[in-house]
Design goal:
- The protein is mainly α and about 45 residues long.
- The chain has 2 helices and no strands.
Amino acid sequence: MTFPHQQAALRMISHARTLRKAREQVKSMVTDGAVRHEVALVSCLE
């Protein structure tokens, strides 16, 4: 069962700037994670 305020929240559309910022954050998290993973891999091989 959903309430009217929940239905309104589901219909909200994010601003383009918000979506862009979120994409950039995810991209940097993935890059940071890949770098950390690579560093961990290299240190295991040494």
